Amino acid sequence: KKSVDDINVKGQKVLVRCDFNVPLQDGKITDENRLVAALPTIKKLVADGGKIILCSHLGKPKGEPKPELSLAPVAKRLTELLGQEVKFVPSPVVVDDTVKAAVADMKDGEIILLENTRYRAEETKNGDEFSKELASLCDVFVNDAFGTAHRAHCSNVGVTKYVDTAVVGYLMQKEIDFLGNAVNNPERPFVAILGGAKVSSKISVINNLLDKVDTLIIGGGMSYTFSKALGGHIGKSLCEDDYLQYALDMLKKAEEKGVKLLLPVDNRIGDDFSNDCNIQIVKRGCIPDGWEGMDIGTETEKIFCDAVKDAKTVVWNGPMGCFEMPNFAHGTEAVAKALADTEATTIIGGGDSAAAVNILGYGDKMTHISTGGGASLEFLEGKELPGVAAANDK
Ligand code: 3PG
């Protein structure tokens, strides 16, 4: 895999695809982890004397310029983080004559940021015209957008058809190394913890991980489908009735493979979906009508935490309960703390689990927190990510 260490960018125009798809509230960035994670590659290219043209998507503007989805706040914040101007070169069509003139004017070591690539409708269709326009801006293409690697769009895949050199950046490299090693070459015991609302969104992950792990822990909203499949009462808990058989199949597969599959043995339940509802802890499968499971229970916390104690590799994707509500954050927090305390290599899938770990204050205790939500999930499914494949072609 060629990376930014294998090229000489002195005096070259370098188009860098980053994932600056960050949450914004009233024009303010509320989580800047993706920006911070992109800095090493940018700094390296600046130090090597490249002319750096950054690009990214933000949200889903669906091919229309939407002012609230402009990358202007990102340029401003990157300027502060780098201590060097990141000049924002906005255009409603992303690439136009003004943008081309600005690129032609760049000096070595300067940085510009283009407007949201999804202002162009072709972007998400991986169309040729926009891909060519992007490629025409640069001599070299660097893909550092791991968070977008599961998409095949112009700015991360199409563009590589029209450039001579395409390499990966440090962030992409790091993500692939950590996730790839964990899944394909883990130090054992290897424990995976899966949570989150839906079994349906984790089908392929469960299936793939059962071929790899020593222990699979299933908590969160998806565990109630398993509980019901086993004949339990789950009240008004989340459940996907179409996946009951699948849940049984996975339990059987685990047994056949000799994988220890741990489900909650008890749950913290509420009589309303709110932090201040009435709360009790009951055994799995004993949730009364009118109540719903909102977290794992205390006995389960102990079992799950014990299971990671002697692990050498732990991958975690998906919270154990409704961690946004303090009364139902106990399970997620217990698991986060157990991961912080273990000697194991700990890898956190992006999205909700990354947010949970950071909000609960355990972020810097983890070995690696992925910047990819959907991308890390597809990686754990064992899929080849189009963004990674395209960058490796050249
Ligand atoms: C993400 O946040 O998962 C990536 O930036 C991809 O965004 P998308 O789901 O809008 O394609």
Automatic annotation (TrEMBL):
Keyword Mitochondrion attached: no
Binding-site residues, ATP: K202, G293, E324, G350, G351, D352, S353
Subcellular location: Cytoplasm
InterPro entries documented for this protein: Phosphoglycerate_kinase, Phosphoglycerate_kinase_CS, Phosphoglycerate_kinase_N, Phosphoglycerate_kinase_sf
Enzyme Commission number(s) from the entry: 2.7.2.3
One of the record's GO cellular component terms: cytosol
Signal peptide location: none
Transmembrane segments: none
GO MF entry, a single one: phosphoglycerate kinase activity
Pathways per UniProt: Carbohydrate degradation; glycolysis; pyruvate from D-glyceraldehyde 3-phosphate: step 2/5
Reaction catalysis annotation: (2R)-3-phosphoglycerate + ATP = (2R)-3-phospho-glyceroyl phosphate + ADP
Residues that bind (2R)-3-phosphoglycerate: R34, R118, R151
GO BP terms in the entry: gluconeogenesis; glycolytic process
Listed CDD domains: Phosphoglycerate_kinase
Keywords recorded for this protein, A-Z: ATP-binding, Cytoplasm, Glycolysis, Kinase, Nucleotide-binding, Transferase
Sequence positions that bind substrate: D19, F20, N21, R34, H57, L58, G59, K60, R118, R151
Record family assignment: Belongs to the phosphoglycerate kinase family.
PANTHER family on file: PHOSPHOGLYCERATE KINASE (PTHR11406), PHOSPHOGLYCERATE KINASE 1, CHLOROPLASTIC-RELATED (PTHR11406:SF23)
Subunit structure: Monomer.
Protein name, as recorded: Phosphoglycerate kinase
Gene source species: Blautia obeum A2-162
Organism placement in taxonomy: Bacteria, Bacillati, Bacillota, Clostridia, Lachnospirales
